[in-house]
Design a protein that fits this description.
8% helix, mainly beta, monooxygenase activity, 225 residues, three-stranded antiparallel beta sheet, disordered N terminus, disulfide bond, globular, lytic cellulose monooxygenase (C4-dehydrogenating), metal-binding
Length: 225
C-alpha cells in the first residue's frame, strides 16, 4: 500500500514539475508562439534526433500573429508555470527566407544560430539562474538583418541526464519580426535535428555526483555582433 502511494505521489509530482514556453512579450499564450505539442500535457522532448527537437511540433503549424521587436532590444519569453528543473536556458534564431511566409516556414536545414546560453555557478552544487523562474529576457542582436525570424527557446532539464536519453528538452518557437537591423550574417549555423548528440557532454551529464566543476553547453557558440 505504501509503495503504491509513493508511486502515485512521485508520478503526480513529476507531472506537475513539467512546463511549457507559451508566450513572448505582452501577448497571450500561443498568440505569437507556435503551439507546441505539449500544450496540454506539459511533456518534453526526450530524443535529440526527433523532429520535435526543432520547435516541439510534428507539423509546422504557425502562430496566429508575429511579435515585432527592434534589433538590439530585449523581449521576454515566459514559462508556464515555472522552469522547475535544473539546467540551462538557451535561445536560437533562424531567419525566414525573403518571400516566404513566417507562419508556414518550417525552419529546416542549417539555419539556426545561438544568441544566448546560460552557464551555472559552481560550488557544492550547480546553481542555475533559470531554476524556478517564470520568465527569461533575451536580447535580439543589433547587427542581424531585419526580417522575420523564428525564435527558438529551449530549457534543458538535467536532473536525470546521467544516462543517454535522460535529458528533457522543453521547447517552443516564437514568430518575430525584427526591424532596424544591420547587415551581419551570423556564422556557425546548425540544424534541428542535427545540432546535438545524445552523448554531448552538456546533455549526458551527472549534475549530482561528482559535482561538476565546468559545464559545456550543447550546440554552437553564442553569436555576438
Amino acid at each position: 500500500m505504501l509503495a503504491s502511494l509513493a508511486l502515485v505521489l512521485t508520478t503526480a509530482l513529476s507531472a506537475t514539475a513539467h512546463y511549457t514556453l507559451p508566450r513572448v512579450g505582452n501577448g497571450a499564450d500561443w498568440q505569437h508562439v507556435r503551439r507546441a505539442d505539449n500544450w496540454q500535457n506539459n511533456g518534453f522532448v526526450g530524443s535529440v534526433s526527433s523532429p520535435q527537437i526543432r520547435c516541439f511540433q510534428n507539423s509546422a503549424a504557425g502562430a496566429s500573429q508575429t511579435y515585432n521587436v527592434s534589433a538590439g532590444s530585449q523581449l521576454t519569453y515566459y514559462v508556464n508555470p515555472n522552469a522547475y528543473h535544473p539546467g540551462p536556458m538557451q535561445f536560437y534564431l533562424a531567419r525566414v527566407p525573403d518571400g516566404q511566409d513566417v507562419t508556414r516556414w518550417d525552419g529546416s536545414g542549417a539555419v539556426w544560430f545561438k544568441i544566448y546560453h546560460e552557464q551555472p555557478t559552481f560550488g557544492q552544487q550547480l546553481g542555475w539562474p533559470s531554476l524556478n523562474k517564470g520568465s527569461f529576457p533575451v536580447t535580439i542582436p543589433r547587427c542581424i538583418r531585419s526580417g522575420f525570424y523564428l525564435l527558438r527557446a529551449e530549457h534543458i532539464a538535467l536532473h536525470s541526464a546521467s544516462s543517454p536519453g535522460g535529458a528533457q528538452f522543453y521547447i517552443s518557437c516564437a514568430q518575430i519580426g525584427v526591424t532596424g537591423g544591420g547587415s551581419t550574417e551570423p556564422p556557425n549555423k546548425v540544424s534541428f535535428p542535427g545540432a546535438y548528440s545524445a552523448s554531448d557532454p552538456g546533455i549526458q551529464i551527472n549534475i549530482n555526483w561528482p559535482i561538476p566543476t565546468s559545464y559545456r553547453n550543447p550546440g554552437p557558440p553564442v553569436f555576438q555582433c
